[in-house]
């Protein structure tokens, strides 16, 4: 990986992105899910021999991993990571280190494609998710998504001054409404803040990708498959 990145005509920022993407692909090569959310910080990637990319089962693993990745972070991010892997594979084959193309059957998704909805969580699963001991930001976000039935993009786009906390609604046309859970959490989340993104990070507005990764990581212990669930599963029946 380092030889490919060093040989590519990239700036320092792009080299970092390429390393992160290629490291993410290392996990499914050994049939493991990449760590997400807080688990990703400091996680040591598996040591993967390059020859494993020529193994008969590798193509299937990478196809499955691409589907799961697109489900978790959206088509745009998954496509970018697939393109980075394709560039690395081409370079490695050019060096004579590989013979096959394990992603030959993996097709890019339309960048504008809707994210796959994922399985709808039933009432018991939803209660388990909303009861998880997670930071206030995540707990408020999950309650608001479930109680309002709004799309994830719309909720993440909210600013603090969009809220009518006393009325349990947003201001303006087509307001969102929420119930007891979000009503108890949102005042705590906005305490001492008058404006800016409702759901924020140290660098600005919380992104869909980050929110999805955190949710998947947090719900992995609840998922019988051990993969974690998607944020869209929180939408009440008939919504989302």
TrEMBL record:
- Identify the SUPFAM superfamilies for this entry: DNA breaking-rejoining enzymes
Question: What InterPro entries does the entry give?
Answer: DNA_brk_join_enz (IPR011010)
Q: Which GO terms describe its molecular function?
A: DNA binding
Q: Name the domain of life.
A: Bacteria
Protein name, per record = Integrase
